[in-house]
Specification:
globular; mainly beta; 48 strands; four-stranded antiparallel sheet
Length: 548
């Protein structure tokens, strides 16, 4: 009875409260959430580093994570998008085996159709950023499209010379010395600590855009540079080509000029020739200096007709390929049609030239977007006979069905790699990268596999045959390779050399050199336009350590 009474009273009270709440709720705004509550977090990664911090392929790594106990077989574990084998699961951690195709990157758990992201797992392989290199090396942008390093070369007396469109390097520019477009660095990527050991570019440095695309070192350490610039330390005009002394200062001399006085003179550049347009490549040959680019004329200063205020510029109409003598004067025996009046160069490409290399036979290969050269069909690649400057008729390659953006040549292996927006070369399938010989024939020992989610933008071969490739891709042959990869000479991924994480941008070139202390190690200093490499911030340059 007591139970019944209590039940009755409970019922009455419940009814009363219900009526009261019902009465109160008539004019009350609902407190129900506009959106449903988020599901309870099933998996939670702890704020702790994986163990070990650096792990090799096929080794075991342990990650602190909650919510997976008893769920082995019900979830998947990924390292930088590659699934890893789960070895052990506890209430507070999970242990997995590093896949042989894994690369440095964030880990993740997939369970019940949901993804939970964890810390970065660093994979140790045979390739990494050398610890002696400062990944914080800073290249000032100096404005839109500035900061790129176009190339790098080793100097005969030691050290490295870099060139490009950067406006500073490691904040070494001062009020007395500009650092725009050219700089010297050591083998660890560091600029000289003392200003006395830096290039003597002067207060203004290169002017008129200051983009240096190509360079080579001549006798006595003389530096020849070309690209897009008009002056150096307000001296010129330079017409996009210059010769510098070994210390980086413009090489000048006194020249007789016209004007009042017994013998009026003026300082001017020793190399006083150039071109009217952008230069892509310079080549040092026994017969002179060859410039390749998208220019339309040769220009040289005639000092005997110049005044102190106004230089006299002599121009010759010649496009894309020209040879100059040691003082910059045009070589009239090279690519000039003397039957024309006035004398002018032969008709060259109907499109743009993007790149060029000189091969072992001394001839030049030019690549780009053109489909004719000297009014004859051309599959975006042709060969120049360096004896005449004319198209070499013995080069009969069919070429590519799309633009060829980059061409690289390794003198030791003799291999040539083309990269671009083509899908076939010489009628054979090619996925944007193809290897050819000096005659333009496909080298079938190399096959470039399919890339996904992007395209390749550079391919260059190391002396040991391995190939460096950069691009916007995320996968190669189905394997995650975010922006950079190392291939074997046959085009397969080089095992142990593809552990690096995310890389952006593109490569422009590199130089390689052995370790002074360990014969199994060699270094590659790589330059281009990239701000992240292996997930770390860099400034368009990085030193890589290859372990044989």
């Amino acid at each position: 009875m007591i139970f019944k009474k209590e039940w009755v009273w409970g019922f009455v009270l419940a009814a009363a409260f219900s009526g009261a709440f019902s009465s109160c709720n008539k004019n009350k705004v609902s407190e129900e959430a506009l959106y449903p509550k988020a599901p309870a977090t099933l998996v939670k990664f702890e704020d702790a580093s994986p163990t070990p911090a650096l792990v090799a392929e096929s080794a075991i790594v342990t990650v602190k994570v909650n919510g997976l106990e008893g769920k082995k077989g019900q979830f998947r574990f990924y390292i930088n998008q590659v699934e890893a084998e789960v070895m052990n699961v506890t209430a507070e951690e999970v242990s997995v085996k590093i896949p042989i195709t894994a690369s440095t990157g964030s880990c993740a758990v997939e369970i019940g159709g949901e993804f939970y992201f964890g810390p970065v797992i660093s994979i140790r392989g045979k390739l990494n950023i050398d610890p002696s290199f400062n990944t914080g090396s800073s290249i000032a942008t100096g404005g839109p499209m500035r900061g790129e390093i176009s190339g790098i070369l080793r100097r005969a007396n030691g050290g490295l010379f870099i060139y490009g469109s950067f406006a500073d390097y490691q904040s070494t520019a001062t009020s007395t010395t500009a650092v725009n477009g050219i700089a010297v660095i050591d083998e660890n990527g560091a600029a000289p600590a003392s200003e006395a050991n830096r290039l003597k570019t002067g207060v203004q440095g290169l002017g008129g855009g200051a983009s240096v695309n190509t360079a080579f070192e001549g006798e006595g350490g003389t530096l020849y540079i070309a690209g897009s610039f008009a002056t150096m330390n307000e001296q010129g005009p330079l017409n996009n080509v210059a010769m510098l002394r070994s210390d980086g200062a413009l090489d000048t001399a006194l020249f007789d000029i016209t004007g009042e006085g017994e013998q009026p003179q003026k300082y001017g550049p020793v190399f006083h020739g150039g071109v009217g347009g952008n230069v892509l490549k310079l080549f040092n040959t026994a017969s002179g200096i060859i410039a390749v680019g998208n220019f339309t004329s040769h220009a040289s200063i005639l000092f005997e007709r110049s005044t102190r205020e106004t230089p006299y510029i002599d121009r010759v109409q010649i496009s894309q390929v020209v040879r100059m003598k040691e003082d910059g004067v045009i070589d009239s025996s090279f690519n000039l049609n003397k039957a024309m009046r006035p004398v002018q160069g032969y008709t060259n490409a109907n499109g743009l030239i993007y790149d060029a290399v000189q091969t072992a036979n001394g001839k030049l290969l030019l690549a780009g977007s053109f489909t004719t050269f000297e009014n004859q069909g051309a599959g975006r690649i042709i060969r120049i006979d360096t004896a005449t400057g004319r198209r070499d008729p013995s080069f009969t390659a069919g070429g590519a069905n799309g633009s060829i953006n980059r061409i690289t040549y390794n003198q030791k292996t003799g291999k040539i790699l083309l990269t671009g927006g083509f899908t076939t070369y010489n009628g054979q399938p090619a996925n944007g990268v193809v290897m050819i010989d000096q005659d333009g024939n496909v080298d079938n020992s190399f096959k470039f596999r399919t890339v996904e989610e992007g395209i390749p933008n550079y391919a260059g071969q190391l002396d040991d045959g391995k190939i460096l490739v950069s691009g916007t891709f995320n996968k190669y042959a189905g394997v995650v390779r975010p922006g950079f990869m190392v291939l074997n000479p046959d085009g397969t991924l080089a095992v142990g050399y593809n552990n690096l994480g995310f890389c952006n941008g593109y490569i422009n070139g590199f130089t390689e050199y052995p370790s002074a202390t360990d014969p199994t190690i060699r270094f590659v200093m790589m330059v281009g336009s990239f701000t992240r490499f292996d997930g770390k911030q860099v400034g368009n340059i990085v030193k890589l350590r290859f372990q044989n």
